[in-house]
Amino acid sequence: MLRSFRSGPGQSLTALSRAVELPHSTVLRLLNTLQSEGYVRKEGTLWSLTPQLLEIGFAALANTGVNDFIQSSLQALADRCSGTVNIGEKSKDQAIIIARASSESERRKILVVNLRVGSSLPPGTALCSALDLPEDQWSIAHYADRKVTTVGISLFTGPARSLSLGLSVNDDEYSRPRIESELLPALRVKRDEIRRLMRLGDV
Question: Of 186, 188, 189, whose CA–CA distance to 82 is shortest?
Fold first, then answer.
């Protein structure tokens, strides 16, 4: 139900019922429960999420095990490669970004990619494809419209969770041979560092 608000605020009962494929009566009962808890509000005939939902989001982020040390580690790699680094966690058939760092040059770009912590990346993206890969393998995805290449490796695979580590760089700065000779070794070193940090963080 909450995911159905991704298309934006001000959703009608009909639109929400269609999105979750449930009868109007069931959706209305769920909405009334969420409203009584303060997570949604109704304005006229339209429903929207409230900021109170952020408390659940922040609690979820706190449980990912990403702390300031890990964030600093990601930032160092992003700055070194003038790119963007993401940690993704497996959720069904997608990768949810649970940590992200971008270099200053990436943040200054006019072209804005609407990705942030909490964004879902579908199958076919490097971060999602890297989930559950053997440690000696890696994934790659090209985005010609943005002149960006992303490489991904498995960060951790366990019975309860799977994590991946991805690095996006500018095609003008990194050729395929340079990605393989420079970026992949750096990414694997960073993987070992993050694993140590996440153990220290009691993940």
Answer: 186
